[in-house]
Model the fold of this input.
Amino acid sequence: MILNILVGGPKEQWPDELVAGNIQGPWIGVDRGALRLVQLGITPELSIGDFDSMTESEFKLVTQHSRHTKTANPEKDDTDTELALREAIANFKFDTVMIYGATGGRIDHLLANLFFIFREPFNTMFEKICLVDKQNSIRFFKPGSYHLVKEDGKKYLAFIPLTQVTHLSLMDEKYTLNKIDFVYPVSLASNEFVGDTGEFSFKSGVVAVIQSRDDEK
Done:
């Protein structure tokens, strides 16, 4: 089962299927992401956030068209994305959670959303999380061997260590990596798919893998 979360972010960075309202639920709306779901005609199972950037009429619209609404204190340590994920873990069943809008606009939000996986309870289930926008998808991996499938024309690959990573190998792609060690936090590797799939492995650490495509001209 796939659970969808819309954090917000610039609409220009949403995947085309989200702009068209064609992604099937269930949905959690986060702050202004909840408003945007309602405007798309989608009923969030849960709307959550501090809602401090909404007008009174916008907030009323969200509460009227959401199955449940939960308001957070603006003075908090967790991001709204983390709050939504905590609710998801506690109250929803899912195999994958797709988070839309968490990579857009605000670089501080992006960095926070890359590193929240080390907090409880995400550090036990981060492999189920994917951050998605029009140009990129970001997934998190623990040590092992993996089979990648190129997503929606996103031919570029980046490996970003979130801890020290050892023996990362990527064979049969444009640039071969063979048991490379990454010294956190200054290393990264950019690459490209040759075909539509790829294999990679590593021995220790946590790595974020980004699939990207070029800006549309």
